[in-house]
Amino acid sequence: MKTKLKTLFEYVKMEHTVFDLPFIFAGALIASNGIIEMYKFFIILFVAISARGAAMSINRILGLKYDITNPRKRNWALVTGEINLRQAIAFTLILVFIFEGLTYLLNNLVFMLSPIVLIFFIADPLMKRVTSLRHLFMGFTIGLGIIGGYLAVNPNFPPAIIYLMVAGSTFWIAGFDIIYTIPDEVYDKKNGLKTIIVKYGVKKGLIISWVFHIFTIIFFIYIAFIVHSIYYILALIPIIILILYEHVAIHGTTPENVRKVFFNPNSIIGFLFLIGIYISLVA
Hints:
By secondary structure, the protein is mainly alpha-helical. Helices cover 78% and strands 0% of the residues. It has 14 helices and no strands.
């Protein structure tokens, strides 16, 4: 049983919460002026975890017919049969139930809006079959968590800084997702899946990724003019350096190189942003 649970959590790649969780809490901190009640902190935490898990599981289920023939994904649990489709669906429904139940505990507005989030989760993996702009759609879907974090604490119309954060994180995620799809260029092209890399090739795709990240930097700098804090600026400097590093370090198309460039710097950026926002609010 313990092994099966471990496999399920590996199946939904819970480590990827490092990309959205810090921004969700940043939204919540802005709504609470830097102080979140402990019970609300844990509810938001588990809402975010269940949402991420459900989204990843939906992605795996809807993409299974492609994953089973993709050499890069041959060891994924749903592909190997370590988890069967029935178990995956059941696990997804449990996560959705937890997500919905916890949003109800937050407030009525978040609960009423929660089905919209689920619709985005379902639409996101399907977008890869429709448009190469799916990277931006995915970034925006994850960025919605920032609005959710704010509304979880303050169920009123969010201020401009929240939308700047959503815009910045949308382009940030879209930019590194382009890099993430590089190893699948040949497979995606053969199977009619649409990505920036498939449409424009690796060289032009990396330029587009860089342009997306320039937008991220612009939005994050704009936030500095709202926050008016040296602490946020001090956090922003390494964020920009890590974004630059990502584009300097990508020198190959192997899954190992791409994963290293994709995961390592980006797993830190969100936490730096959260620290900068938090200290700016409480200092």
